[in-house]
Amino acid sequence: MVKLFKLFKLLLMVFLLLLLGGCTKMSWTTAGKIVPPISNICPLEGKWIVLQDLSAGGQSGRKEENWVGNTAQFTRDVAILGDYVWNSPSYKIKKVNATNYLMTKYLMLPSSLVPDNKIVEVTTVSTSESFLGEFIRINDSKLIALVQNKVLLLQKVSDQADNSLIVMNPNGPNLKQSSKSAISGVLLGLKIPEGNDETYQTLWLAASAKKLHPVLMGPNIFFPRSSGFWVLQAQKVITGALKDDELSAHDISTKILENQSKTMKTNKSVVSEKNQQRIIDYVGNDYVTIENKIDGVDQLQVLPVDKISAQEGVKISDLLENGGSNVYNNARAQVLQALKNEGILPKDNDRSGENFGLARKNGHWYLQGRVNYQYEGSPRYIDYNVNLIPPAKMISYDTLCLSWQNIKDRIPDATDAFTSPNRDIALITTKTELYVYGITNDRLDREPLTDLKLKEGEAVIMSEWATGSYVDNWEKAFLAYGAQRFN
Fold first, then answer.
1. What is the per-residue burial (b if ≥16 Cβ within 10 Å, else e) of 452-464?
2. Domain's final residue, options 167, 199, 226
3. What angle do CA 185, 284, 228 make, to 5 degrees?
4. What are the distances in angstroms from CA 73 to CA 121, 162, 313, 350, 357?
């Protein structure tokens, strides 16, 4: 009887458990399923208007596009900026330190807009084939957009995009199809060693949907400015036993003016009793950095393109703001003190702040200063880093969208790298090769689009990018200048 009672209790407990279990969803029925997010709202959802263009300067060599007053609209299905449309965009959010993030973008924005060291939310917008840009959220009503090689301030005007956006025809006549595959091109300036001298040439590399255009090559440095395309030339002038490098720059639509030639001759006569060698290290839209060698003394100089033949360089104080000169002077003072500690008493010949330039390292340009001194009767120098972002007056675009470590893991002997604003192609250099790769999901594609041979010691001194319809314009301008297909 006791056994029957215990058995009855056991069966009753099992029955109750089964009855209660039927009121709940068994845990194994959801195993392996992806639980959808609570909210399916686009992180940039709504309608925005461009209040201000914060760019220091736009893409050169073309008429600038005015973005102020244009609208931007975002949903899960479409992203629109002005007349451009991206279908099926992907949104990725990250939180970053504002100061560190802006430094990687070589941007200086007012602290009233983006406070120093503030943690901000950055949303990256892209499609499977192209990259739209990155959006820094200042607050719920303001964004800073890094798009189309521009820095734009956006103000929210509505929490929702226009209803017509849902049913709009993306192939309509008023929309530029940025949802199509990206197209990018770059004018690449090269410095080529020739014995004890250097020669210069320009390459044109472009790709549409990761299909490479014919590679073009032209003599000298062909580069864009806001006034059009210019050419920078270096000519060796020999007068008796003296040698001099003469630099000139002019708009390709005009010839070198007579008064410019006279000015160059006048400047040359100033140093006619000395050997002078000018080696170009960097070419930008408005400034050039050179190594100026006069009778064995090597100094750095920054020269304005409009006064390229000048003997005096630009002062660091003319380019840096907000105490930048103090950072430069402090860095220089540390080097001078280190030399004095070693018993070397260098003559401080840079009180005006002209002995500086740009150096290339790990895919970026860096400010670099130089101290000249004598050691055992011979001229020597030491270079030092200046821990400041190069001013936008000198560099308009210097973003590397790939990790330098990932590049080195893939190409261990890589010496430099450049990536397009569209994030669709990358240029990787080694000591003897120049590779062009497609980029997919911020990684190099498996095989390069092309591989060009470089001379030992050949270096990139300029990279000017064009995107969209400007690629065709730049290519035609370079061909009109006389560029030939690269063999």
1. bebeeebbbbbbb
2. 167
3. 65
4. 18, 8, 46, 52, 42
Question: pLDDT at position 181, please?
Answer: 62
Residues in the chain: 487
- What domain count does the chain have? 2
Looking at the structure, tell me whether residues 148 and 263 fall in a common domain.
Answer: no
**Rounded Cα–Cα distance for residues 278 and 474 (Å):** 28
One-letter amino acid identity for 297?
V
What is the Cα Rg of the chain in Å?
A: 29
Question: Does residue 251 sit in the same domain as residue 358?
Answer: yes
Instruction: Output the pLDDT for position 273.
Output: 60
Q: What is the three-state SS of 363-422? A: CEEEEEEEEEEEECCEEEEEEEECCCCCCCCCCCCCCCCCCHHHHHHHCCCCCEEEECCC
Pairing of strands 183-194, 459-467: antiparallel
In a domain, 4, yes or no: no
* pLDDT tens digit sequence for 438-470: 998 889 999 999 999 999 899 999 999 998 878
Examine the fold and report which residue of 167, 197, 213 is the final residue of a domain before the chain moves on.
167
Q: Which residues of the chain have pLDDT under 50?
A: 1-5, 7, 14-38, 58-62, 166-179, 256-272
Q: Which amino acid is at 392?
A: A
- Provide the pLDDT for residue 40: 64
Give the bridge partners for 224, in sequence order.
229
Which tokens go with 218? 């032209």
C-alpha–C-alpha distance, residues 281 and 365, integer Å? 11
Give the pLDDT confidence score for residue 378 in this predicted structure.
Answer: 86
pLDDT for position 323: 72
Cβ-proximal residues to 28 (8 Å cutoff; 6+ apart), any chain: none
Query: Does 173 reside within a domain?
Result: no
- Tell me the residue range of the domain where 267 lies: 183-485
> What's the rounded Cα separation, in Å, for the pair 205 and 222?
13
Contact 399, 158 (CB under 8 A): no
- Using alpha carbons, select from 266, 227, 269, 271 the residue that is nearest to residue 249: 227
Report the Cα 50 to chain-centroid distance in Å.
Answer: 23
Helix (H) / strand (E) containing 243: strand 242-251
Contact (CB, 8 A) for 300 and 355: yes
364 with 292, same domain? yes
For residues 105 and 400, what is the distance between their CA atoms, to the nearest angstrom?
A: 9
**Judgement on whether residues 280 and 133 belong to the same structural domain of the protein:** no
- Amino acid 324: pLDDT: 81
Of 147, 224, 214, 234, residue with least CA distance to 187:
224
Q: Evaluate whether residue 278 is within a structural domain.
A: yes
* Whole-prediction pTM: 0.72
